[in-house]
């Protein structure tokens, strides 16, 4: 083929591909604004993370983060439709567009960040996988559970972590797989399983939920994984990704800079240039995100800073901040600079 014909064929190929390449990607921000509500996938009920109270109001770190995003985008933290999901339905709900964000104690892993068309916007909670047993069983470590039955939710990293740990340590467990969170708890408490495994935040929550009987159960000292839990969005809509990511960063930066839900408005006059940029007194971050100048101020006023969210949702359960302290205090929580 002559050089002229090669160039002509190449041009035709590019012309045919052009319309497909030019197709616009998803615009979640526009969809949320048109709808007037943020659709947020949460769990079916984990105290301290996402749990509906007796009036049907969702509480917890994950639920509060949804409210922060709604406040940043829509100016109203109550304009959220919470969608309960299980470990097996959560990703489909986001992939299909049923929800705009997944804020549901979900572990950031390579497989989830690479292979399913979704991506994580940050870490909301650093956790780890643990085990709970009845005190009367007199079990002091996970190795003493060799041959035991263990209740677990399928479709989770928890299930995979247990299989990996057992294989690596030449131990044998019999998993009892139950999808519903409340049902798997009940199976353990009714004696169907010798132990129940999930993230430590979940174990602390369900143990506290036993009230006077809480002391009848022990969380073993063994932690077999690191579980960075955070919100997810669909790949390809990078403006929405930035909005979710930087809303999370704003809540952390607020704690770092001493900005609270109560003093956020007054802090707009703070002489610290970074605080001014965070709260929209200066800078153009809001415009660049397609939001109002005070988008971060709205989020902070709605739910407080990261530390306030923790004190409201995790501290009452007796959960220590530990690695979820700010980096300056020896933890793993920090925000990139607002500059």
Describe it:
- It is a single chain.
- The protein contains 13 helices and 14 strands.
- It has 339 residues and is α/β, with parallel strands linked by helices.
- It has 2 domains: 29-126 and 230-318, Periplasmic binding protein-like II (D-Maltodextrin-Binding Protein, domain 2, 3-Layer(aba) Sandwich), CATH 3.40.190; 127-226, D-Maltodextrin-Binding Protein, domain 2, CATH 3.40.190.
- The strands form 5 sheets. A 5-stranded mixed β-sheet has the order 10-9-11-8-12. A 3-stranded parallel β-sheet has the order 4-1-5. Strands 2-3 form a two-stranded antiparallel ribbon.
- Strand 9 (149-152), helix 6 and strand 10 form a beta-alpha-beta unit.
- Helix 3 packs antiparallel against helix 12 (295-303) and helix 9 (238-256) crosses helix 12 (295-303).
- The model is unreliable at 1-23 (pLDDT under 50).
- It comes from Muricoccus roseus.
Briefly say what this structure is:
The chain has 339 residues and is α/β, with parallel strands linked by helices. Helices cover 39% and strands 15% of the residues. The strands form five sheets. The protein has a five-stranded mixed beta sheet with strand order 10-9-11-8-12. A three-stranded parallel beta sheet has the order 4-1-5.
């Amino acid at each position: 083929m002559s050089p002229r014909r090669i160039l002509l064929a190449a041009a035709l190929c590019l012309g045919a591909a052009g319309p497909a390449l030019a197709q616009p990607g998803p615009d979640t921000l526009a969809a949320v604004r048109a709808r007037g509500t943020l659709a947020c996938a949460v769990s079916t009920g984990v105290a301290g993370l996402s749990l509906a109270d007796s009036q049907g109001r969702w509480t917890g770190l994950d639920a509060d983060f949804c409210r922060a995003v709604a406040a940043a985008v829509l100016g109203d933290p109550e304009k959220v439709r919470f969608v309960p999901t299980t470990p097996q339905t959560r990703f489909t709900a986001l992939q299909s567009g049923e929800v705009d964000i997944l804020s549901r104690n979900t572990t950031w892993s390579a497989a989830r960040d690479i292979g399913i068309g979704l991506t994580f916007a940050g870490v909301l909670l650093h956790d780890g996988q643990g085990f709970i047993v009845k005190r009367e069983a007199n079990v002091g470590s996970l190795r003493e559970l060799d041959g035991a039955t263990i209740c677990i939710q399928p479709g989770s990293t928890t299930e995979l972590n247990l299989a990996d740990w057992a294989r690596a340590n030449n131990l044998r467990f019999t998993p009892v797989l139950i999808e519903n969170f409340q049902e798997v708890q009940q199976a353990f408490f009714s004696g169907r399983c010798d132990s129940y495994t999930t993230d430590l935040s979940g174990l602390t929550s369900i143990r506290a939920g036993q009230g006077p009987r809480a002391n009848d159960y022990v969380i073993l000292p063994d932690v077999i994984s690191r579980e960075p839990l955070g919100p997810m969005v669909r790949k390809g809509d990078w403006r929405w990704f930035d909005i979710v990511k930087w809303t999370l960063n704003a809540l952390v930066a607020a704690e770092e800079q001493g900005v609270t839900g109560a003093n956020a408005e007054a802090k707009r006059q703070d002489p610290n240039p970074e605080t001014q940029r965070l709260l929209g007194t200066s800078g153009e971050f809001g415009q660049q995100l397609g939001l109002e100048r005070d988008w971060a101020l709205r989020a902070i006023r709605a739910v407080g800073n990261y530390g306030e969210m923790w004190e409201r949702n995790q501290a009452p359960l007796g959960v220590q901040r530990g690695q979820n302290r700010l980096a300056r205090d020896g933890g793993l929580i920090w925000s990139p600079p607002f500059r």
